[in-house]
Amino acid sequence: MGSETIITSLSHTAGTAEPALLEETIGRNLARTVATHGGRDALIVRHQGIRWTYDEFWEQVDIVARALSARGFVKGDRIGIWAPNVSEWILVQYATARLGIIQVSINPAYRTHEVSYVLNQSGCRGLVAATDFKTSDYRAMIDQVRSEIPSLEQVIFIGTSDWDELIGAAHAVSSDAVAEVESTLSPHDPINIQYTSGTTGFPKGATLSHRNILNNGYFVAEACKYTEHDRVMIPVPLYHCFGQVMGNLGCTTHGAAAIYPAASFDPVATLEAVAEERATSLYGVPTMFIAQLAEESFPSYDLSSLRTGIMAGSPCPIEVMRRTMSEMNMSEVTIAYGMTETSPVSTQTATDDPVDKRVGTVGRVQPHIEIKIIDPESGATLPRGDAGEFCTRGYSVMLGYWDEPERTGEAIDAEGWMHTGDTAVMDDDGYVNIVGRIKDMVIRGGENVYPREIEEFLYGHPSIRDVQVIGVPDEKYGEEIMAWVQTTEGHTITAEDVREYCKGKIAHYKIPRYVEVTDEFPMTVTGKIQKFKLQERAIDELGLHGAAAIETA
Q: Which end of the chain is more exposed for a tag (fewer CB within 10 A), N or C?
């Protein structure tokens, strides 16, 4: 994986054409895996006490598919799934795929305004939901907005008589009838809508096909060198590509076991599950790995079974990557980079890449994908080593934003390139480094400053456990640099300490003028830091005013 078929002095490269793309539907691929690995563990959901082999998993998927068919759902219908990491989630994922029903993955953190919007915008006929989760009373929220959603005909609450009645309906439809529907499906059919976590305005529904997500799950798992002997710990949310594609589909395309340690991320539950289930691979965003490494009980867990895993979702601090490799036994851990609209992964490090490449880059292009780095103003492909906008095209690019052709056209150009909005640099060997979001770039007194660079530097301070750097308005410079830090246990730090640490080591204009200590960062359910909220908080608490408008898009 990752070797290039195009090598030039420009920041443009394409992945290998081997192995071949999977030209089949998700259901057909699962059937092949079941035929080969039927007796092996397929799904372990620890908090529900579930352990299914592939044969048992197939039987459960078939029941749910028959039940949905009996309830009148047909190819092209949309069914929402609004729940944390539970077995019913994956059953709906594969049952809808077998029927050609488009599964709408809904963020568990959504509230009434957001859930009403996505159900309406996608035209969901059905919704499978948990009754509640954390501070969310899903049943009450649905009652509140249901009259606003004319398309919504059926709501099925997990763990109630609703679910029992759904399963009870399965007897009215045969397995052969499901198989007959499945035979009419194309790998190019839309099968999943995932709403991107936009920070302003309404989220956009990235529409993905069987071919999009089946292949991306397969190639991500190939990069981790999965076989049927792997046991993959999935503490990341299923509603996001990380869980349902890189996790579930990565496992089922290889006959590996998928393990859910808890309904949502819990560092202790994850560490316990890794040790007790003898996991070989662990997924997470950097904040999850930071939380596990910081656990007081961390040294007591036997993590010797771990070999690999994936860190993705946001840039990984180099020091966290090194500690994960050494202290968590993940010597073959990989970094993956992508976005929902690209199914999601475009680049990934290889398990045998040199350590400096694995800790300092997001790897090289995936097979069957083409990438380039362009000048966002002119559109010209830049020389290697120059920072510009990361663009990607190939099988992984979404079909489009659901029912929003204009917004689709803004993201995907006439030649099929997805414009990511991320700022990246490609080196001579084709490895890519993400240096920030174009919109995250801070312009201080005419100097372009990438927060990622300052964050990496500050991670080296012994008192700093985690840090987020943002730009805030300033009357003199347009923008100034601000660092929000979390301290390591037992440590304190002041703004002057930070500035003294920076002095003489990084350019003066990169040294944070403002430093605030915080116990937690605002983040999405997938673990992505919401920097715009830190900016809003800074403006409010510090009374900042200036020429720069705070970018919250």
A: C
For residue 140, give every residue at least 6 positions away whose Cβ sits within 8 Å of its Cβ, in sequence order, or none: none
Give a yes or no: residue 168 inside a domain.
Answer: yes
Give the residue with greater pLDDT, 318 vs 404: 404
Domain end position, chosen among 151, 166, 185:
185
What CATH code is carried by the domain that includes residue 155?
3.40.50.980
CATH of the domain at 479: 3.30.300.30
Report CA-CA distances (Å) from 313 to 148, 237, 492, 493: 33, 11, 29, 28
Instruction: State the chain's mean pLDDT as an integer.
Output: 92
Element counts in the chain: helices (H) and strands (E): 18, 26
Q: What is the pLDDT of residue 548?
A: 32
Domain count, the chain: 2
Helices 54-70 and 161-168, axial angle in degrees (round to 10): 90
Write the CA distances from 339 to 69, 80, 122, 398, integer angstroms. 32, 21, 20, 10
pLDDT at 199 exceeding the cut of 90? no
One DSSP character per residue, 110-136 reads: --HHHHHHHHHHHT-SEEEE-S-BTTB
Q: Provide the residue range defining the domain that includes 466.
A: 442-542
* Residues 47-71: tens digit of each pLDDT: 999 999 999 999 999 999 999 999 9
Q: What is the pLDDT of residues 140-164, one digit of tens each?
A: 999 999 999 999 999 999 999 999 9
Percent of the chain at pLDDT exceeding 90: 79
Last residue of a domain, one of 185, 205, 222: 185
**Number of Cβ within a 10 Å radius of residue 355:** 11
